[in-house]
Amino acid sequence: MSQQVRTAVFRPDDDRIERAVELLDSLGATPVPDPMLAIEPTGATPEPGAFVVLTSKTGVELLDEAGWNPGDSVLCCIGPATADAAREAGWTVDRVPDEYTSAGLVEHLAPDVDGATVEVARSDHGSPVLTDGLRDAGADVHETVLYRLVRPEGAGKSAEMAAAGDLEAALFTSSLTVEHFLDAAAERGVRDEAVAGLNDAVVGAIGPPTRDTAASHGIDVTVVPDEATFEALAVAAVETAAPTYHE
């Protein structure tokens, strides 16, 4: 029985947090929704390039709303959620790396981008691993910030629960969710206690970069799923936490 697996989830306060709550409910866990990211669109659109790289479903949706399309560019998407959103917008997705990370996309594109213009369109918190790696591969890289990621006012009830020992699991879906969680905990004066509470729980990170960020702040990550999707993360974390509460 996993009903006692109180699981903090930090997705943006839109359909993503709603789907996350539904998924955790379906797994028999008790969702603790605490959005740690809010989207502030910039209104910018990508410049033309031989390759256009989109790194998130949010970016795709903003560009679709703006009436943008990739034209003759080779459209590259990190991960299935981004690619699916792009296809739903009516665009042809040309490249998706096997590994859904910045490093994975660099490895995937490196043989083909020497001398080519590559437009990277993403949030203001994108990893330099992507842009630096593409430049090292010989690409002429330009970056467009489509939206800013900020911490919502009032976020942090999960930090208080962690500090009180009232969380069994926490699901971090980006480095920024880790940092915003810790900022929210610090605002409440419970940062050290929240980290200690997480380290008594099952902590899931969606991929190695998120795991490394958590580790750099003293958070022990229990679970990194093989596939960098929220569903895989949630299933792995709840299954790992549930046996502890079977009595």
Task: Give a quick summary of the entry.
This is Uroporphyrinogen-III synthase. With 247 residues, the protein is of the alpha/beta class.
Order of the strands making up the biggest sheet: 3-7-6-4-5
Compute the number of helices.
10
Distance between the termini: 8 Å
Number of strands: 9
Approximately how much helix is present in the residues?
Answer: 25-40%
Radius of gyration: 19 Å
Identify low-pLDDT runs: none
Give me the strand/helix succession.
EHEEEHEHHEHEHEHHEHH
Beta-sheet strand percentage? Answer: 15-25%
Nearest-integer average pLDDT:
94
The structural class is alpha/beta
Shape label? elongated
For the biggest sheet, the summary is: 5 strands, mixed
GO biological process, one term: porphyrin-containing compound biosynthetic process
EC number: 4.2.1.75
InterPro entries: 4pyrrol_syn_uPrphyn_synt_sf, 4pyrrol_synth_uPrphyn_synth, UROS/Hem4
Keywords: Lyase
